[in-house]
């Protein structure tokens, strides 16, 4: 497949968020709200909503924004133009594509059609709403781009900005991340760190931002889009950003470090995080398209499977598991991170065991190298995307004293409330595969409705003289569509030496 795509002016809308949303219109994936709403109405409408929501008339300014866009595997698959079960594999394929950039100047970059600076660069003019009841203030989630002074490479992530005023926001920067390390180094040198936050871009750009890889992460956007990336330099710093985004908020994290109290936030595991000390972001410019589509991101609540965070986390987790298994398992068949767990707390893997011990090797690998807390490995006949099939496998193929691996004293997400403050916790691996010695046992095959395929014979006696047969084969042998006459016939054959073998097949003793 040729991954190169010719680029012209029209391509500046190809990966536009608005184009993606327009494309959802007839898919049943979009909840369009044209009624006049306040910012205070939005959170409740998005909570537990299976669709992306397009608000087209918010507040006195009649603002327009979309939310929950990334909160389904179907929508993420649409962004990557592949089947929902294959998104992580498609990402793996695209990661090998060489990045390309098209540098645009301000006049031709859609995201700089409107430029706001000074007093006009006002965060409180943007449609940022209160997401959860106990949040410290309204916040937005945005894709950030930073140039690491140590390497000259661009780093990107997804971060939340809690409003502190017209030109300031706190940035949640407590979890280990490359940006945290870059910022702490800048702060230790007494330097500000220029940063650009992109609001409203293609879903792929968001997937890209959640990855932590030691490459230039602007290039990652190009690779994952499988297309040259149009970029433009910010007005108030040297950072290059996707020129086809909806909006960019330029500014810097000041040099004072973790000095201001921020939060609480509804967090990505479905609980609140406490008040934390965080750095402060100062706005230097806001640029946007002439008709920008603002984007909000769902983070928490009681339906984690229907949040943007969980769905992005799940995808990142699956990709990491595929990568980790590559050197140790010959034939992984499928990987799925159930989003309801928060996206990366649990993972299911189906694999075809070639050697005894491969399933346990896979479990140790996953628990050791990926931030997964509970890992399940099954044989390929189990559909790991089905909760019903997984419950069946857990109920029938698992003995806790032999098939459970527990790894303790390891690092977990500090936001995991079951740690109750402990710095380390435990992970578990569930081996739900059959022992290799059990392979081929007919009792372990799954009962299915009879199909009555089989050779025809002149009579039941003739069929039995040919060899042992199951009841189904005897019905097929004489073309029976009922079966009860076979019971009667077998009854008469008992005096002629009718017997059963250990699979219950009938045969005639010689
Ligand atoms: C919707 C969403 C919001 C996120 N918000 C934050 C955040 O506020 N702070 C943070 O440190 N990580 C946050 N993350 C996780 C980071 O984006 C992720 O760990 C990323 O890989 C970090 O990138 P970096 O290590 O290249 O800096 C969020 C992830 C998602 C999907």
Question: What topology does this entry show?
Answer:
Layout: H1 11-14, H2 17-24, E1 30-33, H3 39-46, E2 52-58, E3 63-67, H4 73-80, H5 87-94, E4 101-104, E5 114-117, E6 139-147, E7 154-163, E8 168-171, H6 178-188, E9 193-199, H7 203-209, H8 217-225, E10 229-233, E11 240-242, E12 247-253, E13 260-262, E14 265-266, E15 272-273, E16 276-278, E17 280-288, E18 294-296, H9 308-325, E19 332-336, E20 346-351, H10 358-369, E21 374-378, H11 387-396, H12 400-403, E22 404-410, E23 425-431, H13 460-466, H14 471-477, H15 484-493, E24 498-500, E25 506-508
Parallel strand pairs: 1-2, 3-18, 4-10, 20-21, 21-23
Antiparallel strand pairs: 2-3, 5-17, 6-7, 6-9, 7-8, 8-17, 9-12, 10-11, 12-17, 13-16, 14-15, 19-20, 22-23, 24-25
Helix pairs in contact: 5-9, 7-8
Residues 141, 155, 157-160, 172-173, 175, 177-179, 209-212, 297, 299, 308-309, 312 line the site of flavin mononucleotide.
> What count of domains describes the coordinates?
3
CATH topology of the largest domain: Pnp Oxidase, Chain A
Helical segment tally? 15
Shape category: elongated
CATH architecture term of the largest domain: Roll
Bound molecules: flavin mononucleotide
Taking pLDDT < 50 over at least 5 consecutive residues as the criterion, the unreliable ranges are 1-7
């Amino acid at each position: 497949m040729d991954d190169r795509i010719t680029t012209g002016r029209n391509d500046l809308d190809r990966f536009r968020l608005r184009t993606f949303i327009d494309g959802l219109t007839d898919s049943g994936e979009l909840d369009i709200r044209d009624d006049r709403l306040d910012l205070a109405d939005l959170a409740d409408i998005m909570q537990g909503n299976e669709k992306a929501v397009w608000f087209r008339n918010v507040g006195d300014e009649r603002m327009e924004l979309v939310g929950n866009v990334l909160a389904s595997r179907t929508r993420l698959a649409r962004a990557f133009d592949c089947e929902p079960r294959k998104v992580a594999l498609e990402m793996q394929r695209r990661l090998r594509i060489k990045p390309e950039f098209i540098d645009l100047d301000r006049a031709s970059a859609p995201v700089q059609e409107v430029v706001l600076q000074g007093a006009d660069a006002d965060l409180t003019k943007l449609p940022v709403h209160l997401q959860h009841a106990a949040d410290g203030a309204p916040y937005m989630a945005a894709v950030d781009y930073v140039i690491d002074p140590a390497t000259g490479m661009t780093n990107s992530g997804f971060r939340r900005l809690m409003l502190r005023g017209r030109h300031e926001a706190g940035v949640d920067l407590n979890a280990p991340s490359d940006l945290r390390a870059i910022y702490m180094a800048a702060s230790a040198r007494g330097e500000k760190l220029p940063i650009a936050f992109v609001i409203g871009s293609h879903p792929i750009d968001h997937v890209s931002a959640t990855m932590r890889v030691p490459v230039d992460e602007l290039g990652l956007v190009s690779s994952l889009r499988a297309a040259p990336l149009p970029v433009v330099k910010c007005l108030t710093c040297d950072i290059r950003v996707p020129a086809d985004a909806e909006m960019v908020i330029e500014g810097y994290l000041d040099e004072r470090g973790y000095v201001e109290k921020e939060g609480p936030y509804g967090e990505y595991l479905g609980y609140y995080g406490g008040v934390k000390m965080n750095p402060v972001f100062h706005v230097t410019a806001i640029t946007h398209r002439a008709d920008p589509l603002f984007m909000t991101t769902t983070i928490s609540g009681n339906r984690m499977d229907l949040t943007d965070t969980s769905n992005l986390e799940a995808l990142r987790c699956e990709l990491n598991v595929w990568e980790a298994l590559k050197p140790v398992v010959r034939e992984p068949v499928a990987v799925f991170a159930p989003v309801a767990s928060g996206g990366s707390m649990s993972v299911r893997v189906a694999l075809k065991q070639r050697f005894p011990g491969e399933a346990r090797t896979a479990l140790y690998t996953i628990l050791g190298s990926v931030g997964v807390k509970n890992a399940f490995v099954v044989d390929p006949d189990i559909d790991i995307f089905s909760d019903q099939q997984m419950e069946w496998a857990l109920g029938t193929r698992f003995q806790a004293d032999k098939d459970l691996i527990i790894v303790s004293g390891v690092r977990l997400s500090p936001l995991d409330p079951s740690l109750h403050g402990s710095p380390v916790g435990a992970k578990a691996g569930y081996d739900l595969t059959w022992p290799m010695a059990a392979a081929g046992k007919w009792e372990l095959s799954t009962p299915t409705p009879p199909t009555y395929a089989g050779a025809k014979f002149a009579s039941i006696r003739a069929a039995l003289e040919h060899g042992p047969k199951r009841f189904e084969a005897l019905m097929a042998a004489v073309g029976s569509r009922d079966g009860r006459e076979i019971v009667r016939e077998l009854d008469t054959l008992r005096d002629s030496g009718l017997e059963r073998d250990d699979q219950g097949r009938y045969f005639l003793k010689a």
